[in-house]
Structures are given as C-alpha cells and as structure tokens.
Design a protein that fits this description.
single chain, mainly alpha, Protocatechuate 4,5-dioxygenase, Chain A
C-alpha cells in the first residue's frame, strides 16, 4: 500500500468542502478517479481505519474521517475500529 494518495485524499477532505461533501454523499464516486490500490479503496469505502493505520496511514490524518463524518464513521465507531489495532488482523 502506498499511503501518499490516501494522505492526499484525507488532507483534501479537510480543505476542499466540495470534495468533502462528495465523500459524504457518494464516496465510491468521489474516489473513483484517484490512483488508489484496490486494498486502499476497499479499506476506505469500508471505513477500515485499523487496516489503513497498519499500512502506514498517519493517524492524525485518519482522524479527519470521523471529524467530517466520512465513510460512515462517527467518533465512537472510529474509536471502536481503531481499537482493532491492538488485535492482529484475521487472515
């Protein structure tokens, strides 16, 4: 996983209100043109923040997801999913 594009996406969500709104209303379409790996795209759309963090996405930038209500995550769900970092991923 190359995290640069995910970092750019999360930063853009912070500064670009139109993009942020598209991420809220139609996330698959909003990220369709971005050069993400299949794993990155799947993790983002599933709100799988633990996988993204394990793969190197900075947690400060990941915290934008619940702050702006992206990918179906609110603060409580984000915290619950980030706690999954303590558990090894299931293969």
């Amino acid at each position: 996983m190359s995290v640069y594009t995910v970092h750019k996406l999360l930063h853009r969500a912070q500064v670009d209100l139109d993009f942020r709104d598209r991420l809220r209303t139609d996330p698959a379409s909003a990220i369709a043109a971005l050069p993400l790996t299949d794993e990155e795209r799947s993790a983002l759309l599933a709100g799988d923040v633990a996988t993204l963090a394990r793969r190197g996405v900075h947690t400060f930038l990941l915290s934008r997801i619940p702050r702006f209500g992206l990918f179906g995550l609110d603060r409580n769900e984000y915290i619950r999913r980030m706690r999954d970092l303590d558990d090894p991923p299931v293969s």
